[in-house]
Amino acid sequence: MTFIPNTLTIRKVGTKDTPTPVYSSKQSRAYPQLKNGKLYFYTNDHAPNFKLMVTDATTPEFSNWKEFIPEKETVLESYALTSDYVLIKDKKDVVSRIIAYDYNGKYVKQLELPELGNVSSMSYHRESNTVFVGLTTFKNPGKIFRLDGKTLEWTFFYQDTSVLNTSEIESKIVFYPSKDGTKIPMFISHKKGLKLDGNNPTMLYAYGGFNAGIAPHYVSIVASFINRGGVYAEAGLRGGDEYGEKWHQDGMLENKQNCFDDFIAGAEYLIKEKYTNPQKLAADGRSNGGLLMGAITTQRPDLFKAVVCGVPLLDMIRYHKFLIARFWIPEYGDPDKKADFENLMKYSPYQNIKQEVNYPTMFVFAGENDSRVDPLHAKKFVAEMQNRPAQKNPVMLFMEFDSGHGSGKSVAKQAEDMEIQWRFVMNQLGMK
After folding, report:
1. What is the model's pTM?
2. Residues 85-137 pLDDT 10s
3. Structure letter (DSSP) for residue 11
4. Per residue in 167-196, pLDDT tens?
5. Please, which residues bridge with residue 203 across strands?
6. Of these residues, 189, 287, 348, 403, which one is catalytic?
7. Which domains does the chain have, with CATH numbers?
8. Out of 96, 370, 374, 403, which one is annotated catalytic?
9. Does the annotation mark 405 as catalytic?
10. Which terminus of the chain faces fewer neighbouring Cβ atoms within 10 Å, N or C?
């Protein structure tokens, strides 16, 4: 079997025929698995939240596919075929779960997880009839459990170790209304016994694009910030995958402003609920999240004390002319087209810098060898910010001359960069 983008070709079982296409689409995808003479297809064809379809292996053509697990309100993320069960991993309100069906498509039960956490991965090992399930929590590094494919019994397999102290950290999920009333999920982590006095140093992070969403995960590098009294919040903005493809579409192209509104509403929520105040609130995002940082800084500078803006897109009128950015036109739009140009001009951070505004202190960083987002975005944005008499707060540019978009850095270099960024944040928020 071969999957070429949007075209699935299969050599029929028991033959030496040349592989022939059995499925083709410009909008949808399909991924096959063979089990007991049946082909199962994980697909979003006419199902933005995905569904599972099935056909006999001797008749693999799309016209023969039948629904096995229909599309639901929850997002079907992956599945595993064991000896006795079809195990579905779906996502409800940003948290994953596993549901078992028999091979007649009949619901069996939702599995009780061995520990409270989020299902981060699920991989089937055929020889042992075992599903290896990754489980993540905020306080502990990832664990892996064995799930017996016949009895559905759990056994512990492996856990990472960590030197971080997370014993006093607690996390929760909240839902707050955005500008248009849409409920946005947000994770909040802090030390136990936090006083909601409106004076806690707080960091709000988000990405908001390209169908990449949030899920419960180990606090890891932010543990030091939290243990020093910080509040760390992560918002699941529209543009991500929190509630399926529609959630993604509601934060792209002409709907991109929804992402910025969602983030701004998250900041307002943290202030309203007395977690923090504008003089104690920092914002963080990189890449597409760097665009988010540029937009929220130019749109609502009154909300933030400091902003960390990493490897960002900031000139959305010319973004498509540099490096590989033309491939992102389906996400942002084509500035060479009038309607897209007018939409992009409304929020493009570089074009929306106001001469008379003193913007929050910013730490903008970029990689000189970035092959995705040209560092010119960071350079010209910072130059324009600095070249205005009204700008009293520092706007700093940190250039990495030995790195690119972020991947490939040594562990030592990653640690050095994180130290620099967190020193900036803690200094701005009055932390030790």
Report:
1. 0.92
2. 999 999 999 999 999 999 999 999 999 999 888 999 999 999 999 999 999 99
3. P
4. 999 999 999 999 999 999 999 999 999 999
5. 232, 282
6. 287
7. 2-159 (2.130.10.120), 169-428 (3.40.50.1820)
8. 370
9. yes
10. C
